[in-house]
Amino acid sequence: MARSVNEMLCCPSCKGELIHQADSKADRLNHDLLSCSKCDVSYRHFGGYYDFLGGEGLVFKNRREKFFRSVLAKVYTPLTNMMFLLCGGPKSARNEVMGRLRVNDGDTVLETGIGYGENLLWLARRSAGLQLYGLDIQEEMMSHCVSNLNRWKINSELVRADAQKLPYRDNVFDVVFHLGAINLFEDKGLAIREMIRVAKPGTHIVIADETEKAGRLFNIFTGSAEKVVPPVDLVPAGMKNIALSTIWRGYGYVIEFDVAK
Ligand SMILES: C[S@@+](CC[C@H](N)C(=O)[O-])C[C@H]1O[C@@H](n2cnc3c(N)ncnc32)[C@H](O)[C@@H]1O
Ligand SMILES: [Zn+2]
């Protein structure tokens, strides 16, 4: 049975309990706020999701990257599909990652860095009764995602949050995956540990992003000079069956492992 949103969520900073403002007698009008009394902070529900970031968001290395990312947020699907042509076509590129998930009907699934929500559509077409959860750091991505999921009639619970600071309780997801942004994260190890924290023991975790071969192309647009190193060494000791493979005709990598039981 689906658990209520608040049963899944926690404060992203202290991981403590969140209280619906309406539950306190203080202000019954603020029923769309979740508050952490320990951190003395409230998170607002607006536009179809709880926003755990407020004024925070993606940090850009330079103006060129900011411009490139804002264009990408506006035309994400056609641009990604074009880029996926290099990787064997959009369908096969997505299948190469999504096909590695181990999903059963009724599972509780989390994607970090959800973009326009296309992976949730992929999942909803293949498995029944999934409880779908997703988050993204960019407001623009979130609003496209909300309207796509409404149009596709897919039920999901979205939040705006940072993949390195998840607002979910420990051990609540059967499936946890990430596709397409970990190369940019400031603390990739923390993002991986957060995915592990929220996953149930035994969960098969899948993390994919571009390799250096694609990174060199991206750097032309973003002005960045960073080299891509798949963060497989940051998977904590104790995880099982850790594997790194190359996908997308060499333009992508996937890291997979099982959370220790
Ligand atoms: C290349 S897109 C991939 C979207 C989606 N996973 C897909 O397969 O279509 C990467 C997404 O990650 C998001 N992102 C970047 N940094 C993030 C972070 N620290 N936390 C959460 N999302 C982040 C971006 O806003 C963007 O929507
Ligand atoms: Zn807190």
Main sheet: strand order = 1-2-3-4-7-6-5-8-9-11-10
What ligand molecules are bound, each kind once? S-adenosylmethionine, zinc ion
Number of domains: 1
Q: Give the CATH topology.
A: Rossmann fold
Report how far the terminal alpha carbons are from each other.
23 Å
Number of strands: 11
> What does the main sheet amount to?
11 strands, mixed
Quick synopsis:
This protein is an alpha/beta fold and 261 residues long. It has helices at 5-8, 63-74, 76-85, 90-98, 118-126, 139-151, 188-198, 212-222, and strands spanning 19-20, 33-36, 41-46, 49-51, 108-112, 131-136, 156-160, 175-179, 204-210, 240-247, 252-258.
Key traits:
261 residues; alpha/beta; Rossmann fold; 11-stranded mixed β-sheet; 11 strands; 30% helix; binds S-adenosylmethionine; binds zinc ion
Please explain how this structure is put together.
By secondary structure, the chain is α/β, with parallel strands linked by helices. It has one domain: Vaccinia Virus protein VP39 (Rossmann fold), CATH 3.40.50. Helices cover 30% and strands 22% of the residues. The chain has eight helices and eleven strands. Strands 1-2-3-4-7-6-5-8-9-11-10 form an eleven-stranded mixed β-sheet, with helices on both faces. A hairpin with a 2-residue loop joins strand 3 and strand 4. The longest helix has 13 residues, at 139-151. The protein is globular. It binds S-adenosylmethionine (SAM) and zinc ion.
